Amino acid sequence: MTFDRREYDARRLAQRLRERGAVTALPVVVAPRQPLIFREWHPGVTLATGPLGIPFPVGSDPVVPTAALVPMIGWDEGGYRLGYGGGFFDRTLASLARKPVVIGVSYELAKIKTIRPQSWDIPMDWVVTERGTYRRDPEGLVFLGEAIAGEPGALASPVCYAAEIDPGHFSEGTE
Question: Which of 29, 126, 157, 174 has the fewest CB atoms within 10 Å, i.e. is most exposed?
């Protein structure tokens, strides 16, 4: 399985969840402007490449998620996300009879003040980055702290520290 769009790679996290008894699944694009379905996935399940180059499980059982890890290329202080513009996750979450716990996964550097959410946008319940974990409260996201369960980096994708570079660093002396 390859991830060309540089989103968070959740394979290590999925492995840890399976070790603790969870069933893991991947989304399947059924058709444009339709909700996603989810099919069980674990190492050994055959994957095919679907629309948008997204790998999906072939022939495994459908799953109704109780929690969903949702990739974000951007996210804001209210817990709203930017994806690639297809609306698949928002449409899917709105269509489920019972909304799962929605956990956005991204990089800290992708945080912006607002994405200017639309009426159909669904906020994340949690956001997890390489910095730590955020929980959504009525006022917006609240940072809970560093790392997960005291294991910095154990479940993270590669860390990006670009946000820590002094903004004047690259323009010093270049008038």
Answer: 174
Residue 101 lies in a domain: yes
Rounded-to-integer distance, Cα 155 and Cα 86, Å: 27
Within a domain: 158: no
Phi, psi of 37 (to 5 degrees): -115, 165
pLDDT value for 164 = 55
How much is the pLDDT for 84? 81
Segments in the chain below pLDDT 70:
1-7, 147-175
- Predicted confidence at residue 175, as pLDDT, reads 46
Q: Which residues pair with 57 in a beta bridge?
A: 47
Sheet arrangement for strand 67-71: 67-71, 101-105, 126-128, 132-137, 140-146
C-alpha span between 173 and 153 (Å, rounded)? 36
Read off the CATH number of the domain in which 34 is found.
3.40.50.10420
Residue 126: inside a domain: yes
Domain span at residue 77 reads 11-146
